[in-house]
Amino acid sequence: MKLHELILSVFIVALISFVSCEKEEEFIKVTDISININSVIIVEGDTLMINAMVVPSNASNKNLSWSSSNDNIVTVDNSGLISAKNVGEATITVSTQDGNRSAVVSIKVIESWISLSQNVIESSLNGGTYEVSLGSSSAWSIVSIPQWVTVSPTIGGTTGLDSTKVNIEVSRFVGTSLNRSGDIIFNLITEIVQIHSK
């Protein structure tokens, strides 16, 4: 055997020995999946993040896939953000790419709503202060108020079955025409209601 062939053979043997001595990284399998909620009631038009984690936390492949049983009711993106589309019930399933594990979240989408204890306020020429009870399925705000009306508060959070007291102050009438009217418009995600004031 020639010298350069001998050197090449020794080099190849040394290279193979070096590669085989390297420790292969251990593949850690997914054994389970955990989610932060199992069921939820959400108002149509709202969004909610579902958090999912693979077990063990140091698993080699943490990739997840998300799906909805009915995209007309609720959709879900690749990060677990659900969007309530229409009233109804559906399930969201999150599955692991490794280990074939899955978890299911039951979703109930309810109608958005807002209610007022009264829709019309009639005041005298001297004006007045009135209290209206407001209930809603989610956050609300007032988007329009006549110049001669003051409202407090002008925004509110989810009230559910509880009601929020809204104070409405109508200023004293100043002018020549005895006919004054206007609307206070409340905005709720998908619904607008108003109080008519004179």
Describe this structure in words.
With 198 residues, the protein is mainly beta. Helices cover 10% and strands 46% of the residues. It has one helix at residues 3-21; strands at 32-35, 39-43, 47-49, 52-55, 64-68, 74-76, 81-84, 88-96, 102-110, 114-116, 120-121, 128-136, 140-144, 149-152, 155-156, 164-170, 182-188, 191-197. It has a 5-stranded mixed sheet with strand order 11-18-17-13-15, with no helix packed on it. A 4-stranded mixed sheet has the order 2-9-8-5, with no helix packed on it. The chain is rod-shaped. The model has no long low-confidence stretch (mean pLDDT 82).
Output the keywords:
single chain, 198 residues, mainly beta, five-stranded mixed β-sheet, four-stranded mixed β-sheet, 18 strands
Q: How are the elements arranged and paired?
A:
Blueprint lengths: L2 H19 L10 E4 L3 E5 L3 E3 L2 E4 L8 E5 L5 E3 L4 E4 L3 E9 L5 E9 L3 E3 L3 E2 L6 E9 L3 E5 L4 E4 L2 E2 L7 E7 L11 E7 L2 E7 L1
Parallel strand pairs: 2-9, 11-18
Antiparallel strand pairs: 1-4, 3-7, 5-8, 6-7, 8-9, 10-12, 12-16, 13-15, 13-17, 14-16, 17-18
